[in-house]
Design a protein that fits this description.
By secondary structure, this protein is an alpha+beta fold. The chain is about 25% helix and about 25% strand. The protein has two domains: about 130 residues, Clavaminate synthase-like (Double-stranded beta-helix, 4-Layer Sandwich); about 100 residues, Clavaminate synthase-like (Double-stranded beta-helix, 4-Layer Sandwich). β1 and β2 form a beta hairpin.
Length: about 280
């Protein structure tokens, strides 16, 4: 695609591109916005460097794509309930590392998972702390015709409890916390293969953090098929990797990607995340 207002530099063969020629402190005209939107659809995740923006400016950019999401659990930035404040300890990853350093699609344990998220690097490590992304269109297309015919039409159950650490149920406070989570976000069902509402392309829609089991199968059958799909999805050929710099912004399409925060850094990291509401997968 030819762009008049932006420059698109692909980052890897499967997905990912850096967008140049945009300053998000300025109001975007409709033509520039549409080129950015199309670049997201084409590349699945886009990266903008040197974006010295305020929380309000980040939210304004997010609202161009839809209503902003309020996370049911993660703490938000004071005065900005639409912005998740992700902050590590001074010496590296904090207590949420067990969720972020697993391949996952955000909030699939909700009935309407987000359209996408924008992560802004406020303070990033000099070394380490990359984020990886993968292409769920490509992983679906790489399946054999026989396997695609099997997974098309299947339904999976997604549950936030799936992402809890192994010792979760042994904690004294676990029953009360479990009851609260099941009340706020009860298990939901999503298709194993969803159709993207804008591109109309099919992609796999299961992930390690939140997909519990596949309906209509025995548990051994579900575990075997789900295990295969999760390993298949994570092949390096479907991935790209982004190295953060201060004031970089990453924007991923949550409907057709997974991401993985590489927790290999030993210094403070602070990020602001704005998430755009989505729709029920079909």
């Amino acid at each position: 695609m030819t762009h008049k207002h932006i420059e698109v530099r692909p980052l890897a063969g499967s997905l990912g591109a850096e967008i140049c020629g945009v300053d998000l402190r300025d109001s975007l005209d409709d033509e520039t916005f549409e080129e950015i939107h199309q670049a997201l659809l084409d590349n699945l995740v886009i990266f903008l460097r040197n974006q010295d923006i305020t929380p309000d400016q980040q939210k304004a950019f997010g609202r161009r794509f839809g209503e902003l999401h309020i996370h049911p659990y993660i703490p938000t930035l004071e005065g900005h309930p639409e912005i998740i404040k992700l902050e590590s300890a001074d010496d590296g990853p904090g207590e949420m590392a067990y969720q972020s350093n697993t391949w996952h699609t955000d909030l699939t344990y909700t009935a309407e998972p987000p359209m996408g998220s924008m992560l802004h690097g406020i303070k990033v490590p000099a070394v380490g702390g990359d984020t990886m992304f993968l292409n769920l269109y490509a992983s679906y297309q790489a399946l054999s015709d026989t396997m695609r015919s099997l997974v098309d039409g299947l339904t999976a159950v997604h549950d936030i409890v799936t992402s809890m650490p192994p010792d979760f149920t042994r904690q004294s406070w676990a029953p009360k916390q479990l009851a609260r989570m099941q009340d706020v976000t009860p298990p939901v069902e999503h298709p194993v293969v969803r159709t993207h509402p804008e591109t109309k392309r099919k992609c796999l829609f299961v992930n390690r953090n939140f997909t519990s089991y596949i309906k209509g199968m025995t548990l051994p059958e579900s575990d075997a098929l789900l295990g295969f799909l999760l390993e298949h999805i994570e092949q390096p050929e479907f991935q790209c990797r982004f190295h953060w710099q201060t004031k970089s912004l990453a924007f991923w399409d949550n409907r057709c990607t997974q991401h993985y925060a590489v927790n290999d850094y030993r210094s403070k990291r602070q990020m602001h995340r704005v998430t755009i509401c989505g729709e029920r997968p079909h």
